[in-house]
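Morning run. Coffee first, then this:
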Amino acid sequence: MNLINTQGGPIHNARSQVIGVNDKPIPRLYAAGELGSFFGYLYQGGSNFPEALAFGKIAGKNAASEIPWDQE
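And here it is:
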């Protein structure tokens, strides 16, 4: 079995919000899984699956709670 991982990418916080160059969250931009992973400096194989599940749930919950653009 081969596992292919990509590492690196944008940094995200505990709410899965992508952090911009000004060290503040970019509105309405979320990331999950190995994208911006805290394992970015390692090659972890299967360790990315739990991270993708956990941060996917966090990102989905936070994205769904956003006020729609037409209601702002």
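The chain has a mean pLDDT of 78. Good start to the day.
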